[in-house]
Amino acid sequence: MLKKINILFLLSIGFSGAKAQQTIPFRITKSNNIIVKTLVNKKDSLHLMFQIAMKDGAISPDKQRKADHIIFNKEEISDNNTVDIGNLSWKNISFMDNQLTGPEADGKIGTALFEGKTFKIDYDNNQFVIYNEKQPDLTGFQPISIMMDHDAFYISADNVVDGVRQQEAYFAIQSGYSGGILYSNDFTEENQLDKKLKVLGEKTLKNSKGESLITKQAVLPFFKLEHFVFKDLSIGFFAGDLKTQNVSYFGADMLRRFIWIFDSKRNIAYIKPSKYYSQPYYKI
């Protein structure tokens, strides 16, 4: 009888541990984007790029796979969709239509996957971890403050331009931007980046609306996030007449250099270096 009770006790611990956290596998593209395999509305198998700067989802006009069972209204919005990833399922997910996304993706999916939960982006093991009850092990992690605004996460960091330490520069974490740091138009003009930094070249990009933007690549002497310091960082800023970059980006090339844990209240994150921490900087 005692042996049977012990077996039942051990089994209950096992099931409890399984429910305490869940994992979602992903893969990383050559453009530093995270791709998740999903099944939408039980019928459309789509590869969606994880976009941390949005809550729900979007479908790309350049999708490679069919999305016939996502029905859009006149405003190009589709509500009340289901999304399945492995044995996990979400309801009431909205999708927007005709938004460009990263290479190899049929669209985007955001942080609705982790609504109200503490979650980890684990670049070492190519997976998200969702914590339901059990608290994550924070050994070796550095806490940083984050702010939420219109579903986007913001962090602050120090930038050195021409030997001057810039205080309280805020960056939106942008997993859809393949590069590292992309400065806002205001920061670029106020600090005369075009004159004070070594410019390596320029390239024309397109935003999610399909508008063409000219971005210049340059070298920033120092970038400091908490006690992590990056030297001779490859950064970008926009030039030309179309200047719509209202915020600075902390892009996917910087994001992948850490393992991230975001708390359920979205006011603090914990970071520690990942296996990509010292990799060469990505050049757009």
TrEMBL record:
<protein>
    <recommendedName>
        <fullName>Clan AA aspartic protease</fullName>
    </recommendedName>
</protein>
<feature type="signal peptide">
    <location>
        <begin position="1"/>
        <end position="20"/>
    </location>
</feature>
<keyword id="KW-0732">Signal</keyword>
